[in-house]
From TrEMBL:
InterPro entries: TPR-like_helical_dom_sf (IPR011990), TPR_rpt (IPR019734), Ycf3/AcsC/BcsC/TPR_MFPF (IPR051685)
Keyword field contains Coiled coil: yes
Official protein name in the record: Lipopolysaccharide assembly protein B
Keyword annotations from UniProtKB, A to Z: Coiled coil, Repeat, TPR repeat
UniProt cross-references to Pfam families, sorted A to Z: TPR_16, TPR_19, TPR_8
Coiled-coil zones: 71-98
Length: 243
């Protein structure tokens, strides 16, 4: 049985939620193909999933292919798990010359999962260079910018989304949320109004309009918006009071 067949069988077991069987197939395959990068990488990830990072590191050391993208991603993930950000960054930066949108997204995901959001944002922005029309990607970048306090950049990306889809209620509500954070309450109300033109029942638009009106001293209209939001049965009051 060749290495690719072994990997296909292991993948089948993983897809059918049978990690132990997948592990057995990989260890069997390793006895036949001890130097195969794909088997070694997959086995290392199996150990990571089992909560055995030391075993994963032991397997990673056995990988001889220094140019394998999979191996680099594995080593970087192990380093990030130990908060060795500079060492991981040095490895991941070598991928830039051969990166495409999917690889950039995978690198971004590694950084974000390790709570290194600024590094993740850079790779999300690199991904956007390959897929500038990908609305889900642009949305993710806008949210990431907002979450790490880069609100001017967040506004830029939400405006890109609005230019692409002028009647996107979610994009207008996202923009309103950023304006609210910046204490630009008039602009937040305006953005909410545009969102509500597109979707009159959008919770976030009503919520941030309520918050913004309250900050502007328009308590009567603010209360109307709060009452609308709280009347929605599937909307948690804790979220309403979070801001």
């Amino acid at each position: 049985m060749d290495a690719e067949q072994i990997l296909e069988i292991a993948e089948w077991y993983e897809l059918h939620d049978k990690p132990d069987e997948a592990y057995e197939v990989l260890t069997y395959g390793l006895s036949w193909h001890p130097d195969h990068t794909g088997i070694l990488v997959t086995l290392a990830y199996s150990y990571i999933d089992k909560g055995k990072p030391e075993e994963a590191k032991r397997i990673a050391i056995l990988i001889e292919d220094e140019y394998s993208v999979e191996a680099k991603m594995l080593r970087a993930e192990l380093l990030l798990a130990e908060n060795q950000i500079l060492e991981a960054e040095a490895i991941l930066d070598t991928l830039e010359g051969e990166a495409d949108a999917n690889l950039c997204l995978n690198v971004a995901s590694l950084y974000i999962q390790a709570d290194h959001f600024s590094h993740g944002l850079l790779w999300l922005q690199k991904a956007a260079l390959f897929a500038p029309e990908d609305e889900d990607l642009i949305w993710t970048i806008a949210e990431c910018c907002h979450n790490i306090g880069k609100n001017e950049e967040a506004i830029h990306y939400f405006n890109i989304l609005i230019d692409q889809q002028p009647y996107s209620a979610d994009s207008w509500a996202g923009l309103a949320k950023v304006y609210f954070t910046q204490e630009l309450y008039d602009k937040a109300v305006e953005a909410c109004d545009f969102a509500l033109v597109a979707d009159a029942g959008l919770y976030d638009a009503h919520l941030f309009k309520a918050h913004s009106l309250y900050q502007l001293g328009n308590y009567e209209e603010s209360i109307k918006e709060y009452r609308y939001v709280l009347a929605q049965g599937d909307y948690f009051s804790e979220y309403v009071y979070a801001y």
